[in-house]
Write a structure and sequence with these properties.
2 copies of one chain form a homodimer. In chain A, helix 1 packs across helix 4. Chain A is an all-alpha fold. The N and C termini of chain A lie far apart (about 70 Å). Helix content of chain A is about 75%, strand content about 0%. Chains A and B meet through helix 6, helix 7, helix 9 and helix 10 of A and helix 6, helix 7, helix 9 and helix 10 of B. The structure holds a DNA duplex.
Chain lengths: ~200, ~200
DNA sequence: TTCCATCACATACAGACTGTATGTAAAACC
DNA sequence: GGTTTTACATACAGTCTGTATGTGATGGAA
């Protein structure tokens, strides 16, 4: 039926195939050790196609990172939709973030390789449109419900983001991953309560 | 006077020169884009010497990372020595950590490139002997003074480490670095107070 | 003192990989 | 219907890592 593909369709199909296989190879070997030849072979094209669609290997990786980050953010948004208050939304979002980032593509591509390959600044630019945006919204909602002039939403967002990223990697390398995850799940609500507590004097 | 160098001296001198120049080049260009030829030229040897002293480029990088991490830990230890209590020690140590990591070599080599180039697990192994060891000691001292069965020292250490690492990179990329640093300095004691607070009911 | 083994490199080379330059068939357009 | 543009494929040049081999100096043994 779709024997006769239009050019635009072919263009999109090849690009999608490159992104799909690039994600697999980057996940398996990491950015530095990924050979572009491997990617294009799996996508059933040649390196000419890759360099037609992307300026260089880094640009391909950046596109994959953006995709991965968007996927994480989507899962967070979906999970925190049915929340009853800001605290609940933050907790649900956090759990969704951990779930998503514990999967190999997100872990390897988004948490480990992206900051080094793209630079911390560029990585945070991308993340700021996705997962970090949801975290910032959660923090701001908390501070809207319980105003606390001592806490800067921006700083809290970055500190929490750093802590959560590290939590993912710690859970992943733990001897007993399930137990580690439970411990984190138990600890995080406690920390949120304490961090966002109103000053004792009120 | 030292015209006639013994073999052991020569060995140590060349190794030290390689480490010194490698640190410079890795800091300037990052691990991936650093050419071993650049390093050995500055050290006034050839690549043969490099591969005699180190198994490969990664091993050289790992040795540099270990050096950098040791330097950070030394500064933390020195800064937290004259502390009057656990809280004071944690704060002093944290400030020393920020000061040390804000310098380019630590930032680029230790915070950005090391996790990707060595793998998170290996990076944490090294860090666990240095900066993270001091942080863990600080956390454990806090929990010794104010016991809190709800807080696992290991988890608190990893979460705080992640938050502090991110704080460094955030300060570094801020438009006004001095102001960003002041904001972090103002926020951290607040967070420590709240995180390590005994449960309200006592 | 002399001989030999080992050390601490230097040199030469093979292999892999990235990016670029060029060629080309099919589609799109006028 | 002829020409231009697209979406690749192919070929090539340059760079870089790691390895294999050569070599002079040093240190120990006899």
């Amino acid at each position: 039926m779709s024997r006769a593909k239009t050019k635009a369709e072919q263009h999109a199909a090849t690009r999608a195939a490159l992104l799909r296989e690039a994600r697999r190879v980057f996940t398996a070997t990491g950015y530095a050790d990924a050979a572009t030849e491997d990617i294009v072979r799996r996508a059933a094209v040649t390196r000419g196609a890759l360099y037609y669609h992307f300026r260089d290997k880094r640009a391909l990786f950046e596109a994959v990172v953006d995709d991965v980050a968007r996927g994480i953010a989507d899962r967070i948004d979906a999970a925190s939709m049915p929340a009853k208050d800001a605290f609940d939304a933050l907790l649900r979002g956090t759990h969704a973030f951990l779930d998503a980032c514990l999967e190999p593509p997100a872990r390897r591509i988004y948490l480990i390789d992206a900051p080094a390959a793209l630079g911390w600044h560029r990585w945070r630019e991308i993340d700021g449109r996705h997962a970090m945006r949801t975290l910032r919204a959660g923090v701001e909602a908390m501070l809207a419900e319980q105003p606390d002039p001592a806490l800067s939403p921006e700083i809290m967002t970055y500190l929490l983001s750093g802590a959560l990223n590290e939590a993912v990697l710690w859970i992943n390398e733990a001897k007993d991953e399930k137990a580690a995850r439970r411990e984190i799940d138990r600890t995080l609500p406690l920390l949120f309560e304490r961090l966002f507590a109103r000053t004792r004097a009120r």
